[in-house]
């Protein structure tokens, strides 16, 4: 059982929160080469240098800690019913189970955790992992206010991933937590060497180039939510059973090609790599794109742009990349298609440069 001498134990923080305002926020992401961040893939594929590229977006998830009477943990999040449990009693298969699991890790009580996101719920932008990083950052600030040592970003990533994987019941990747913690545009490689850090980051763009990139991106919400573990579980089962292995070798190569194209500012090459990767994944799992997604992707290809679903697809968001002129031409086409579904639409967003704060 955790004790007050444990450096990561918070205990009842009601009185602390009555005198301290504590909140934290983290960005979501769009991605290329996801799934390779899952250890089931990058350990056996390590000789082909599995890589995942993500772009952090300035649509942030904010976690605020409020004092709460009694010895319970209360959690509220837009779109979900509030939930309240005593420490170590919450069901982790609850829609807010990951947040309760993190609260139990820090042995915290006397707190109302309020989660607010500027991204659509279950949109494939890494939402639950982003919220987990933001919550850990808020708890880190609480530890600091108590005179304890805070948690560095790399440890926030590892902790958020470890707890999420422990309660998810399926293998989970690391890219969502990394984008949330560090922001920016990065290529992440997975060294697959036990005992060493499980990720290495390589910034693809920095400074003014991050803002310049925004003219080359579109992000659309398809108007329907997704459940990432359904598609990811299919890919994991296929891979473990020996099916489609050559596809993952090709996806690893295309992701490296995409990263190189971004560095060279060759948006045509980036778009080509993206469309090839999307085609491979759709051949393995046709459900990654619904009819709306198919039509948006086809319009992007016709315009000379690349299009890819975010995360594991199956609903959520689709994003596009290309030369500034072609993206400007694609935007009204996407807007018209998306107008056919009342819940769909383009997302106004830019590149996040800060990561968790």
Task: Tell me about this structure.
Strands 2, 3, 4, 5, 7, 8 and 9 form a seven-stranded mixed β-sheet that branches. Helix 3 packs across helix 5. The longest helix is centred in the last third of the chain and has 20 residues, at 245-264. The chain has 357 residues and is an alpha+beta fold. It starts with 10 loop residues before the first strand and ends in an 11-residue tail after the last strand. It is 41% helix and 22% strand. The radius of gyration is 20 Å and the shape is globular. The protein contains twelve helices and 13 strands.
C-alpha end-to-end distance: 30 Å
Q: How many β strands by DSSP?
A: 13
Strand content: 15-25%
Mean pLDDT, to the nearest integer, reads: 94
The SS-based structural class is alpha+beta
Assign an overall shape.
globular
User: Total helix count?
Assistant: 12
| Helix amount | 40-55%
In terms of quaternary structure, what is this? single chain
Summarize the main sheet: 7 strands, mixed
| Computed Rg | 20 Å
The run of helices and strands is EHEHEEEHEEHHHEEHEHHHHEEHE
Low-confidence stretches: none
At a glance:
The chain is α+β, with helices and mostly antiparallel strands.
Blueprint (SSEs and pairs):
Blueprint lengths: L10 E2 L1 H6 L2 E11 L6 H4 L8 E17 L5 E5 L2 E6 L11 H9 L2 E2 L1 E7 L9 H19 L7 H16 L6 H8 L2 E5 L10 E6 L2 H6 L3 E5 L6 H13 L4 H20 L2 H18 L6 H12 L3 E4 L7 E5 L2 H15 L6 E2 L11
Parallel strand pairs: 1-6, 4-7
Antiparallel strand pairs: 2-3, 3-7, 3-8, 4-5, 8-9, 10-12, 10-13, 11-12
Helix pairs in contact: 3-5, 4-5, 4-6, 5-6, 9-10, 11-12
């Amino acid at each position: 059982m955790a004790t007050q001498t444990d450096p990561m134990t918070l205990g009842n923080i009601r009185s602390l929160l009555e005198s301290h305002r504590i909140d934290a926020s983290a960005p979501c992401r769009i991605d290329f080469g996801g799934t390779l961040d899952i250890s089931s893939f990058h350990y056996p594929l390590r000789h082909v240098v599995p890589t995942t590229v993500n772009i952090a977006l300035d649509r942030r998830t904010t976690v605020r800690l409020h004092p709460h009477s009694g010895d319970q943990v209360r959690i509220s999040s837009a779109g979900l019913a509030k939930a309240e449990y005593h420490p170590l009693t919450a069901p982790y298969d609850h829609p807010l189970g990951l947040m309760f699991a993190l609260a139990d890790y820090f042995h915290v009580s006397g707190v109302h955790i309020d989660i607010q996101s500027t991204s659509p719920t279950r949109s494939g932008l890494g939402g639950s992992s982003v919220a987990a990083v933001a919550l850990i950052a808020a708890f880190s600030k609480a530890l600091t206010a108590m005179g304890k040592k805070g948690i560095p970003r790399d440890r926030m990533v590892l902790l958020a991933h470890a707890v999420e994987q422990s309660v998810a019941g399926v293998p989970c990747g690391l890219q969502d937590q990394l984008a949330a913690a560090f922001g920016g545009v990065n290529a992440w490689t997975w060294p697959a060497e036990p005992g060493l850090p499980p990720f290495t980051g390589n910034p693809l763009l920095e400074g003014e180039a991050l803002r310049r990139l925004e003219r080359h991106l579109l992000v659309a919400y398809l108007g329907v939510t997704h459940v990432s573990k359904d598609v990811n579980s299919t890919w994991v089962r296929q891979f473990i059973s020996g099916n489609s292995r050559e596809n993952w070798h090709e996806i690893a190569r295309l992701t490296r090609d995409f990263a190189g194209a971004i560095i060279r500012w060759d948006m045509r090459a980036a778009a080509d790599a993206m469309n090839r990767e999307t085609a491979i994944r759709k051949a393995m799992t046709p459900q990654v794109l619904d009819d709306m997604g198919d039509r948006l992707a086809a319009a992007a290809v016709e315009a000379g742009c690349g299009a890819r679903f975010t995360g594991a697809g199956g609903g959520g968001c689709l994003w596009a990349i290309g030369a500034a002129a072609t993206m400007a031409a694609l935007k009204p086409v996407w807007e018209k298609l998306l107008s056919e579904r009342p819940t769909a639409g383009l997302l106004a967003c830019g590149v996040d440069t800060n990561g968790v704060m």
